[in-house]
Hints:
Layout: H1 4-18, H2 21-40, H3 46-66, H4 70-101, H5 107-111, E1 116-120, E2 125-127, E3 135-141, E4 144-146, E5 151-153, E6 158-159, E7 175-177, E8 181-187, H6 188-197, H7 199-227
Antiparallel strand pairs: 1-8, 2-7, 3-6, 3-8, 4-5, 4-7
Amino acid sequence: MSLDPFIAARVAELDAMLADPMQWLALLAAALAGALIVVSAFVKTIVPLRWLAVGGNLGFVVYGVAHPAPMVLLLHATLLPINLWRVLEMQRLTRRVQRAAAGVGDLRVWLQPYMKRKRLRSGAVLFARGDAADRLYVVAEGQLEVVESGRSLGAGEMIGEIAFFSPGHRRSATVRCASDATLLSIDEQTFRQLFYQNPAFGFEVVRLVAARMSADALRLERKLAQVDPHGVGAPQSVAPPQP
């Protein structure tokens, strides 16, 4: 079977397309949308990535109308409002954090607009050692106790942030209520969005984690000194790091 008729038909279609201004518009829109998709493969942050997706959707919508290509038009007309909503949601989230912070270097201030409140009875276990880390907590009222170390946590103290960054993503200790308690919590997804999208917030998180780890190391040194003041032997038990 000769390919000449097929090639001739395609060339005729291309000539007809290039003679139509609407087809030029469709080709340019598709080329621009394709270029944005290629660029998005090299972008690591969420907001620019979403804006590139919006640009790509717009390009393919124009292509779908001008060519016409109904399935391409339907697909990208559906994706366009979703991507727009997500990018606007991320921008609102960042602005709210910036307003909440207002120069205050306290993570509780940054997080409060996004936290949910819950009440627990005395003796209730907030989380157990080995549990998956899915939320960060701030004590609003009452007392918590780290079971393994006996450490008490009171109003205003934060618990659970280090497990978000641990390799196993698991709690390193059990925390229970030493009294009736009111807690504020934030889910990991929202916490990570804040961390990635706002450098000032990320810096505060790193500073807090470093301070907690330094405090854990200091407590360990004191424990070792109490058990073996002359540096001979080893302690029978060592408090685990902050969960």
